[in-house]
């Protein structure tokens, strides 16, 4: 079994308290509860997910914060709403008559419309402040990237926010913990199981599972044959795709890429396919299906993600680099048509000696999808 961690003696272990705080905050956000975020200075903000905000939750937010809630969205979503002059990754929207639950849900959901209601005023806010952290938390939760926020205006509560939050049965999370979450989670990966799993295209296969300390979904390494770690190892980075990999969806080429990669690695004798838990280019299955509905209305895959408020591609490859280091792989020949994957692995310390082409014929359902990947994402077909 591989080493359980790639950290050297000189590297600090990820802060377990920070990981737990973010994990619990994600859970609260997903169930519609209010979360307290503390900034780097004295700022403290209360947030709840804009998606599915209820009148009762908005009333409690006002009562607890003693201030008027406002909406925080991404710059991408602001552009969709007709605010191209607000040049900021994070934007606050305040309504002159006060924000309501239905306003919040309508403003963040492109399926409900893409028009900014009258009475809203927009202003850029710090991406590294509580507002940006709130949006980041929503992304980690795989929800629409927007929150309803309210400043903690009560002087007594603001002076002792942790004690105040405990008295009101609220969780507190530091903004810095949210911003460092991806790095901490990647560095916390450990091998938890390994087994031989003969495949149709490669009987000499074993699967190694890597679990993050937040208890989230495991990443998998599908190890084919016996890779020689002294030479560049043939590697494929594959982000999970429930619809393509499992159901055989024709809307993408993911299933073809997965099975084709296993066949190619087996043909070459050995290699590793990393199966990464980042569905829908990192936005999650629910949001991917929302993007599909937008695509059915005429948008391409990148525009659909941006209509939802996400970047065109939200995937991160720190976990992939850590998994390769744990497996003892220092250099790779990367099976991909995506130059960003080459750059990402190199940035995180894995030498990419060669890019190996990996393409499959299109069909009438995914022609536009593949064309968009080539013309707008720089994929090399």
Task: Explain the overall architecture.
A hairpin with a 5-residue loop joins strand 1 and strand 2. The radius of gyration is 22 Å and the shape is globular. It has 17 helices and 14 strands. The chain is α/β, with parallel strands linked by helices and 381 residues long. The protein has helices at residues 16-30, 55-65, 75-80, 101-108, 130-140, 155-159, 161-167, 175-179, 181-187, 242-246, 254-268, 279-282, 285-296, 301-307, 318-326, 339-347, 367-375; strands at 35-38, 44-49, 70-74, 90-95, 120-124, 147-151, 171-174, 190-196, 205-211, 219-224, 233-239, 271-276, 331-335, 351-356. It starts with 15 loop residues before the first helix and ends in a 6-residue tail after the last helix. The longest helix has 15 residues, at 16-30. The chain folds into two domains: 16-182, DHBP synthase (Alpha-Beta Complex), CATH 3.90.870.10; 189-278 and 315-375, Rossmann fold (3-Layer(aba) Sandwich).
Sum this structure up briefly.
The protein has 381 residues and is α/β, with parallel strands linked by helices. The protein has two domains: 16-182, DHBP synthase (Alpha-Beta Complex), CATH 3.90.870; 189-278 and 315-375, GTP cyclohydrolase II (Rossmann fold), CATH 3.40.50. The chain is built from 17 helices and 14 strands.
């Amino acid at each position: 079994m591989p080493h359980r961690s790639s950290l050297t003696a000189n590297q600090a272990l990820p802060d377990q308290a920070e990981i737990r705080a973010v994990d619990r905050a994600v859970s609260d956000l997903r169930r519609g509860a209010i979360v307290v975020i503390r900034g780097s200075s004295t700022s403290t903000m209360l947030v709840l997910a804009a998606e599915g905000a209820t009148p009762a939750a908005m009333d409690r937010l006002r009562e607890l914060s003693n201030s008027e809630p406002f909406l925080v969205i991404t710059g991408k979503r602001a552009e969709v709403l007709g605010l191209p002059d607000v040049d900021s990754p994070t934007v606050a929207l305040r309504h002159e008559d006060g924000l309501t639950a239905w306003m919040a849900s309508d403003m963040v959901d492109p399926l409900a419309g893409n028009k900014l209601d009258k009475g809203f005023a927009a202003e850029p806010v710090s991406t590294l402040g509580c507002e940006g952290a709130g949006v980041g938390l929503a992304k980690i939760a795989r929800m629409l990237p927007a929150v309803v926020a309210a400043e903690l205006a009560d002087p007594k509560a603001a002076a002792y926010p942790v004690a105040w939050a405990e008295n009101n049965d609220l969780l507190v999370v530091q903004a810095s913990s949210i911003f460092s979450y991806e790095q901490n989670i990647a560095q916390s990966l450990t091998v938890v199981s390994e087994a031989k799993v003969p495949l149709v295209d490669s009987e000499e296969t074993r699967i190694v599972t890597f679990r993050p300390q937040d208890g989230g979904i495991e990443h998998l390494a599908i190890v084919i044959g016996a890779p020689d770690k002294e030479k560049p190892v043939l590697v494929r980075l594959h982000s999970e795709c429930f619809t393509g990999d499992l159901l055989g969806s024709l809307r993408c080429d993911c299933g073809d890429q997965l099975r084709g990669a296993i066949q190619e690695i087996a043909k070459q004798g050995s290699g590793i396919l990393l199966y990464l838990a980042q569905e829908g280019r990192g936005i999650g299955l629910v949001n991917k299906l929302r993007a599909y509905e937008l695509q059915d209305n005429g948008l391409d895959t990148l525009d659909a993600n941006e209509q939802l408020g996400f970047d065109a591609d939200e995937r991160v490859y720190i976990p992939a680099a850590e998994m390769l280091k744990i497996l003892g792989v220092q250099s790779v020949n990367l099976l991909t048509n995506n130059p960003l994957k080459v750059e990402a692995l190199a940035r995180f310390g894995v030498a990419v000696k060669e890019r190996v082409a990996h393409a499959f014929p299109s069909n009438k359902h995914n022609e536009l999808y593949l064309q968009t990947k080539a013309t707008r994402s720089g994929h090399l077909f």
